[in-house]
Design brief:
By secondary structure, this protein is an alpha+beta fold. It has 2 domains: about 100 residues, no CATH class; about 90 residues, Macroglobulin (MG2) domain (Immunoglobulin-like, Sandwich). Strand 8 and strand 9 form a beta hairpin.
Amino acid sequence: MDEWEIDHDTYHPGDWPKVPFWWNFLGHDPYFATSVKTRWAELSRAILLPENLDRRIDQIADTLAEARYRDVKRWPEPSAGHSYEAEIAALKSWIRGRTLWINNHLWRLASVEGGAEGAQPQEPALLQNYPNPFNHSTTIRFTLPRSSLVSLRLFSVTGREVAVLAEGRWPAGAHTLTWDGAGHASGLYLCRLETGGVARTRTLLLLQ
């Protein structure tokens, strides 16, 4: 096994892929885990609904209708049943299986000994947004050791206030917000968290 890989089977028996070692570290980061679970919940209620996935596959299949008659003898996967329609059905079944697998295994993220997933931060923190750089929307995370008055704002590099993301009293713990940069110019922005006499700043890069 290469040094940059871990044995995926240790974590998910029977599933053959190996993953880069850093995925193990990310999986044990409670803030990353919370963000992944939240985003998956959003997508699984929208674009990743089985009927929406099937509809998208059917649209692509229709687009490739001419090619299937030209190349059908060369590219169909033998295990799919030696027909274009059977291969499409096999693809839909495979994708449904993978989404079901994710639903059943996502809870494994941040299952750290000592209850680290629920551990409270010791001081206010503003984590780096992701993705960064980003196109249109990005996720911004901050943590609070106790219930506090919070001001979370975005500024241009010239100091002009662009958005107020959070204002008022927030409970202790980890918090996740999304900023939609649609309608704003590409460039650098400053995200500033002020709470309990502490200020934290992160740089965001919007690429339209």
